[in-house]
Amino acid sequence: MGKLLAIDGLNIVRRVYEASPEPDSADKADIALRHALSSFRKLLNAHGPTHVLAAFDHGGPTWRHALYPRYREQRAPMPSFLRDALPGFHAKLAGEGLHVLVLPDVEADDVIGTGVLRWLAEGRGEAIVASTDKDLHGLIAHGALVWDHFKGEWHDDAWVRKKFGVAPELLADLLALMGDVTDGVPGVSKVGMKTAAKLLNAYGNLDAVMAGAGILKTPVGERLRAEREVLYLSRQLVQLKTDVRLGVTWNMLAFETF
Fold first, then answer.
1. Rounded Cα distance, 126 and 248, in Å
2. Which key words are in the record (predicted)?
């Protein structure tokens, strides 16, 4: 059986870059990318994958922006020095034997979600996602495991339940209810993680929560009814797109350890 390692490229690069307190500069970008390359090598050596899907955000508007123009409007843009250095970094990854995927109109999360679900559906073996992105933890419900490279720990079903209070299959519903300030996902006003988890565990899923909202004689019930459209918009924004045309074959993503 095979082993797919899906790497959220910018998740590693940005965290390494931002860990340095130095002001933005070409030197800072160069140093960060050298450390990021080392992180990629450690991931490959530690997990010994047969296939690697290394995904990076393309940059610019995506289908989520078309759906909601304010998506990620508060997020700071990538430092220009780092952005300009990325093509060279991608070339170095190619030199390591990786096929880097950078697709327009979608996010790296969508690319990873599509690849991982396809791999698992075809019964090709285990799938590991190297990322700290909470949205990708929903893939655990389908049999994937998430590896936090920075903490050196596995995230599985039990981890998600302890961290978020719901099962992995309900994670997108939870994020839709509580919103995500980082990505500009509105959610329902004054609904935090604990309230969202309580609702989902009581009713079963988002649709069931909304079906019961009509009889909830509470401020939360009132907000759910008043913000129904915003809630379902939020659900679309946090849901991974899993039908991306990747433009690669498994043979193209095959990886040999030298």
1. 19
2. DNA-binding, Exonuclease, Hydrolase, Nuclease
Question: 233 in helix, strand or coil?
Answer: helix
CB 17 within 8 A of CB 82: yes
- What is the distance between the alpha carbons of residues 223 and 236, in angstroms, rounded to a whole number? 19
Q: What is the mean pLDDT of residues 161-183?
A: 96
Name 234's Cβ contacts closer than 8 Å, sequence gap at least 6. 175, 176, 177, 179, 185, 186, 187, 188
Biggest alpha carbon–alpha carbon distance for the chain: 64
Q: From CA 231, how far away is CA 13, in angstroms rounded?
A: 32
**In whole angstroms, how far apart are CA 198 and each of 187, 203, 216, 235?**
16, 9, 14, 17
The region, left, alpha or beta by phi > 0 then psi within -120 to 50, assigned to residue 16 is alpha
- Rounded CA separation 81/27 (Å): 9
The pTM of this model reads 0.95
Q: Residue 5 forms beta bridges with which residues? A: 52, 128
Chain CA centroid to CA 79, Å: 21
